[in-house]
Amino acid sequence: MEDPMKKNGMLCGMIVAVCLFAVFDGTTTSAAEEGGILKEIAVLSGYSHSNLEGCSDDYEVIPFIVRYSYDPNDLLTRFGVTLPGMWRFNLEPFFGQVIDPAPNVEAGCAFLLRFNVPLAQDRFRLFVEGGAGPMYLGRNTEEQSTHFNFINYAGAGCSVKIKDDLAVEGSFRLRHVSNAGIDHPNSGIDGGTVLLGLNWLF
C-alpha cells in the first residue's frame, strides 16, 4: 500500500515543478522582448510561528521562498483593462523547514497580488499583499486531517532600493493553513510570518 505522506509530497513537488517550468519556459525571454512583464526575482527567508491546539509546543517554521513578480497590466491591457497604481502578480514556490515541535517539512506554491505605493522617486516602496496556493504539510496535527492543504496569506511591508537593479525588503504576513473542507477535522492552523528578502529588479 502506498504511503499517503509520500504520495502527497510527490503531488506538492509536482506542483512546484510545474510552476518553475512555467517561469523558465521562455517567460524571461519574452518578458525582455515585450517590454518586461517580469519585474523582479526575489529570494526570501524568515520565521513563521503558529499555535497548535493539541500540542504543548508551538508550530515553528523557517521558510525559504523564491518569488517571480510580474506586471498584470501586460495581460489585462490586451482586454482593454488597466489597473490603477503599481500592481504585481507574484508566483512563490516555497519550502519550509519545520523546527518545532519536531523536524519536518512543508512545501507548495502561493499565488499573490501585491499593491505597491512608490515613494522618494521609487527608491522606497510600501506594499500590501494577499493570496493563496496549494501546499504539502508534512506533520500530522489535530487541526488538519490531510497532508494536502492550502495556505492563505495577507500581509504588508516595505522595500528599499540599494542599487538601481537591487532592493531589500521586509514584510509581515498572517497565514492560515486548511484543506478547504476536503476532510475533517479542518479547524486550520493560524499564525504569522516575518520575511526578509533580496530582490533583483528588471
Structure characterization notes:
With about 200 residues, the chain is α+β, with helices and mostly antiparallel strands. It has three helices and eight strands; from the N terminus they run ααββαββββββ. The protein has helices at about 5-25, 25-35, 75; strands at about 40-50, 60-70, 85-100, 105-120, 125-135, 150-165, 165-180, 190-200. It has an eight-stranded antiparallel beta barrel. A hairpin with a 2-residue loop joins strand 6 (about 150-165) and strand 7 (about 165-180). It starts with a helix and ends with a strand. Mean pLDDT is about 85; it is low at about 1-5 and about 20-35.
Using only C-alpha atoms, the radius of gyration works out to 18 Å
* Name of the CATH architecture: Beta Barrel
Say how many strands there are.
8
- At CATH level 3, the topology is Porin
**Unreliable stretches, pLDDT < 50, 5 or more residues?**
1-5, 18-34
Q: Look at the structure and give the CATH class.
A: Mainly Beta
Number of helices: 3
Class from secondary-structure proportions:
alpha+beta
Give the key terms:
alpha+beta; eight-stranded antiparallel barrel; globular; Porin; 202 residues; disordered N terminus
